[in-house]
Design goal:
The complex is a heterodimer of chains A (341) and B (515). Chain A has 341 residues and is mostly helical. Chain A is built from 13 helices and two strands. A two-stranded antiparallel sheet of chain A has the order 1-2. Chain A starts with 14 loop residues before the first helix and ends with a helix. In chain A, 48% of the residues are buried. Helix content of chain B is 36%, strand content 23%. Chain B has a six-stranded mixed β-sheet, sandwiched between helices. The longest helix of chain B has 16 residues. The radius of gyration of chain B is 25 Å and the shape is globular. The chains are: A mainly alpha (341), B alpha/beta (515). The interface between A and B is large, with 45 and 51 residues.
């Protein structure tokens, strides 16, 4: 398919220019690595401090606790990563997470399959509406998904009698999924790992992933280059809705009931985790691996604060907020550094 | 067989007839120049050819078949590739990713084969003179290299037609040579090329045929060789050489009395990579100096550079003998330079605010004391300028967005004058406003000059330039190529200077750039 173009030989650029070019290549690689792996480095550092300072932190059981409690947020953040890379935002995921949990617990009376499918269908439908509104009416994702946030929360309250009724999980198999283990890791953790692996392939190695990056980098250019902008936008919001619903189901399975009083502000935690993980809030750049690091970093910070014991749990949010601020400032600086050469 | 053809195509936007019964034919292996001034309809025609716009009327035929491309993707799939003037690639993605977006090589599992993609990208780009790590973000490359990536991408898609919109505007001379090499090669392969550029030298160097658009109509089409440069320019600008110098078409009265020998504005050696290559300009009080030249010659850029809105690599600007130290818009305003931007909607007025608020925006810093502003003082100033400029509004509180174009322009002028400038830079002051308001604005420029302001006027309306200016400095490719003085300030003189074979001047400029 490539046409054979025989461009006449060009006078090679002077040696000094080549040297500059190589230096620019190198600098760009270093800065890019910091942008992508910064969160991982900080995670390792914080975990190392935890290892050194708190004997309880070192235990295998504690590591498992961190992983299992991070699993729902991880799923939500995975979908959010796709949305943010396209330059969008999905505020509805917190509500969809709770709604998914309530629906999963309710549907568990018809078996484990229904307990998974019902929240996926419902939250996926919310994702379709979000995506279609963003892609076809060109409304701001912020407003569209804010509306979905309110709508999903309202629906959840309507289904649960103003939030006062907590449905218990009726399916043994569904409950077993929430509490069971395989090779020492809880099923939800395995599920999250598998989906992250899939997400990394989807984002990094498929044409769909390339479209996601292209849209976030420059929507106009993407359209002119022939990217199916609208379809891709719809898909990322559907993906985000599905994962939020799944996260709700996983949490319901783990808790054994559809708890209605959680989930407020979860969308903001997810956004924080994604951004800390090196994804640009303006879109166009980011990785799934970074998001894992971001989610775990938030989880480890929370866990460490629990270890200290005497410190009020609310400090976790203060520290997470400070991290977020630092990350955003550093990201901005690094991006500028890459441009000026 | 004609490769790509439009017949009788019209396209109307609210208030503008962008294309009016336009026909255009591209033969295989032909390099077809498409030229015209701002608003002539080139971009619209390109967008119709590539499926961005659907024509209201008329037909597009591709390889003999009537076609209707719904999206750029459809056109691209059919073999029509476009390189836009602004590099339309994704700056945050890697070079290789950009090159292959949408047709990445895939392995047996259907996954993108990154190694192969990077290797092939490196191979392809080497042939275009781009030597860089293809994994680098595209946005970190120089503009010329980015343009080359866009070109490589356009050619790679098995194109039958390549449309190039001002492809050389950000290229170094060495890169222009590479581009021409690619074009000659495509030409030999029977690929049709639509080449949009304002650089006459380039057109004559590389193009076979030319189609000239003006005000949405085709005014000429034919072999380029047979068309004299001056004729080409006069067709573009719409000035018949025979009907030169008609008096009284504009609101200008004629010569101005130059006051004092010391220039109020002196700009020297203005340089900005790709845009300006050493422009000198001096304006005395009471003088109107016109800047002539074609689109892209560097007229607006010169004004912006003086007004602090375009960063300079080199050059000095002096107002009344005092050099400007901080080269920012604020610094320029403080020094007494007022710039009327070309695009008043995007860069000038605030349509949702009232006439009074728009005028007051500029004077607020000067009138406020401890952050407080006297409402009465503002009222006085606003009233003075509304009367003075004959701004027709129901009251000072009318929304500017509801005024006519001419009155909007006057509000903007009022805002500039309220800062009591010494130098007025006017970029297309009468574009898009009706005839009556046009004459009024022109008369106003006369008056302001008579009051001792130094005025620099950019206009693509040749008559306005000739009759309004005492002196016309002609630019081409960011260098001054001539100055018309006294009796030479005529349409014919202007056309001759613009069209003059510029090889000497141009190559001197490029050599200077390269060194």
């Amino acid at each position: 398919m490539t046409q054979d173009v025989t461009v006449p030989p060009i006078a090679p650029p002077p040696e000094s220019a080549l040297r500059d070019e190589r230096r620019a290549d190198r600098l760009d690689r270093i800065v890019g690595t910091v942008q992508r792996q910064g969160a991982l480095a900080v995670l390792v550092l914080v975990a190392a401090i935890g290892f050194a300072a708190f004997p309880n932190f070192r235990s295998l059981a504690n590591a498992e606790t961190i992983l299992i409690s991070a699993a729902p947020l991880a799923l939500i953040a995975l979908g959010m990563t796709f949305v943010i890379i396209t330059g969008g935002i999905d505020l509805s995921v917190g509500s969809l997470y709770v709604l998914g949990g309530v629906v999963a617990a309710y549907a568990s009376q018809w078996g484990v399959l229904a307990a998974f499918l019902a929240p996926l269908l419902l939250c996926g439908a919310f994702g379709v509406v979000n995506g279609v509104l963003v892609a076809y009416t060109r409304m701001a994702p912020f407003i569209v998904t804010l509306a979905a946030l309110l709508g999903a929360r309202g629906l959840m309250r309507a289904l649960s009698n103003e939030g006062s009724e907590t449905y218990l999980v009726r399916s043994e198999a569904f409950r077993a999924f929430g509490s069971g283990e395989f090779l020492g890791l809880a099923y939800p953790v395995w599920l999250a790992l598998a989906l992250f692996a899939g997400g990394a392939v989807l984002l990094g190695r498929t044409r769909f992933g390339a479209s996601v990056y292209a849209i976030g980098g420059s929507e106009d250019a993407a359209r002119l280059m022939g990217v199916a902008v609208r379809r891709t936008q719809v898909n990322v919001y559907v993906l985000s809705g599905l994962l939020a619903g799944l996260a709700g189901a996983v949490n319901a399975a783990r808790l054994g009931s559809g708890v209605t009083v959680i989930g407020v502000g979860v969308e903001l935690d997810a956004i924080a985790a994604v951004v800390i993980g090196g994804t640009l809030l303006t879109g166009g750049a980011g990785t799934v691996a970074g998001t894992i690091a971001g989610v775990l970093l938030l989880g480890v910070i929370q866990n460490l604060i629990n270890q200290v014991g005497s410190v009020n749990i609310s400090w976790q949010q203060v520290i997470s907020g400070a991290f977020l601020a630092v990350v955003v400032v550093v990201q901005t600086y690094l991006t500028r550094l890459r441009r000026i050469q | 067989m004609t490769l790509l053809e439009v017949a009788g195509v019209s396209k109307t936007f609210p208030g503008v007839r962008a294309l009016d019964d336009v026909s255009f034919a591209l033969q295989p292996g032909e390099v077809h120049a498409l030229v015209g001034e701002n608003g002539a309809g080139k971009s619209t025609l390109i967008k119709v050819l590539t499926g961005v716009y659907q024509p209201d009327d008329g037909a597009v035929r591709y390889r003999g078949e009537p076609v209707s491309f719904g999206t750029p993707l459809d056109a691209q799939r059919a073999g029509i590739s476009t390189i836009y003037q602004e590099v339309n690639l994704v700056p945050l993605m890697s070079v290789a990713r950009n090159l292959f977006l949408g047709r990445e090589p895939r392995n047996a599992l259907g996954l993108v084969d990154e190694r192969r993609m990077n290797r092939e990208a490196a191979d392809v780009l080497t042939r275009y003179g781009v030597r860089t790590d293809v994994r680098r973000q595209l946005g970190t490359l120089a503009l010329g290299a980015q343009q080359m990536v866009a070109l490589a991408r356009a050619v790679m898609v098995d194109a039958k037609v390549v449309i190039m919109d001002e492809p050389t505007s950000s290229l170094e001379p060495r890169e222009v040579e590479t581009l021409f090499g690619v074009i000659r090669d495509l030409h030999a392969q029977g690929i049709g090329i639509v080449y949009v550029s304002h650089r006459l030298d380039e057109l004559y160097q590389i193009c076979d045929r030319v189609t000239i658009l003006r005000d949405g109509r085709v005014v000429h089409t034919g072999p380029l060789e047979e068309l004299e440069r001056i004729r080409l320019v006069s067709l573009m600008l719409g000035r018949d050489m025979a009907e030169v110098r008609r008096e009284g078409v504009t609101g200008f009265t004629g010569e101005h009395e130059v006051q004092g020998a010391q220039p109020v504005l002196r700009a020297a050696g203005l340089r900005n990579r790709h845009k300006l290559h050493g422009v000198d300009l001096a304006v005395r009080p009471g003088e109107v100096v016109g800047l002539g030249g074609l689109l892209g010659a560097g007229r607006s850029e010169t004004l912006k550079a003086i007004g602090g809105a375009l960063p300079l690599d080199e050059g000095t600007v002096e107002v009344a003998g005092a050099p400007l130290r901080r080269r920012t818009s604020v610094g320029a305003v403080k020094a007494g330079i007022a710039l009327l931007p070309e695009d008043r909607k995007a860069e000038g007025i605030v349509p949702s605010l009232s006439v009074r608020e728009n005028i007051a925006l500029a004077v607020l810093p000067r009138l406020s004391r401890l952050g407080l502003v006297s409402e009465k003082k503002i009222d006085t100033i606003v009233e003075r300028f509304m009367t003075r400029l004959r701004i027709k509004a129901s009251s000072p509180h009318q929304r500017v967005g509801d005024l006519s174009g001419g009155n909007q322009q006057k509000v903007l002028l009022a805002r500039l004058l309220a800062t009591a400038p010494k130098v007025l830079l006017l970029d297309e002051p009468t574009r898009g406003i009706d005839v009556g308001a046009k004459a009024e604005v022109q008369a106003l420029v006369d008056e302001l000059a008579a009051e001792g302001l130094g005025v620099v006027l950019v206009s693509s309306d040749a008559e306005e330039l000739i009759e309004g200016a005492d002196r016309v400095v002609v630019l081409r490719d960011g260098v001054v190529v001539g100055t018309l003085d006294g009796a030479d300030v005529s349409t014919e003189g202007l056309l001759r200077t613009i069209a003059a074979a510029s090889s000497a001047a141009a190559s001197a400029a490029t050599q200077e750039e390269a060194s």
